[in-house]
Design goal:
By secondary structure, the chain is α/β, with parallel strands linked by helices. It has two domains: 45 residues; 92 residues, Immunoglobulins (Immunoglobulin-like), CATH 2.60.40.10. It contains five helices and eight strands.
């Protein structure tokens, strides 16, 4: 009797493990919840100028946005975006900078044209606002059909299917002569 229960449980867990999305069952690392991973964009300096565009969290170009470039925590250049949301920071050197607006920032690695990596961009896109949270929420909700309810339905259906299959193939009954 216990052997059959154990067998059914193992089959059910195996089916659940194959069907359930693995990323939903993992716990997030503690450091990921505390700090965000800083992504650095590679940007090519053209004549010592670092250029880019400022947009809001809806993707609309922002005119008149104050842009600051910081190197080791010190502001080394400042400018304001034009009517098309474009900005140019002049007399920049190669190195790692934080570009920031009032409510947004991005880390960039500025490269000289002769040594820039192939993936280096000619312009920076600086988002003034918090667009990343909305994008993460959208990816999370769209990754499972029906969101959290869809995931629960898939898990429940998987468990029921595994039990039914296990019951149909149960050969553990002892037959007395």
């Amino acid at each position: 009797m216990y052997l059959g229960l154990i067998k059914r449980s193992m089959v059910g867990l195996a089916c659940l493990g194959m069907i359930a999305p693995q990323s939903r069952l993992e716990a997030a690392p503690v450091e990921a919840a505390v700090t965000q991973k800083a992504e650095v964009a590679d940007v090519v300096l053209v004549g010592g100028n670092l250029s880019g565009r400022v947009v809001n969290d809806q993707g609309q170009l922002l005119a008149g946005a104050a842009v600051k470039a910081s190197f080791h925590g010190q502001v080394v250049a400042e400018t304001v975006s034009n009517a098309n949301g474009e900005f140019v920071l002049s007399n920049m050197q190669t190195g790692l900078y934080e570009l920031s607006t009032e409510t947004g920032s991005v880390a960039v690695r500025a490269w000289d044209q002769q040594v820039a990596p192939p993936a280096g961009k000619s312009q920076v896109l600086l988002v003034n606002g918090n667009a990343e949270r909305a994008q993460i929420l959208r990816r999370t909700c769209n990754s499972c059909p029906g969101g959290g309810a869809g995931l629960a339905a898939i898990v429940a259906l998987s468990a029921v299917t595994a039990i039914v299959i296990s019951e149909a193939n149960d050969d553990d009954d002892v037959v007395s002569p």
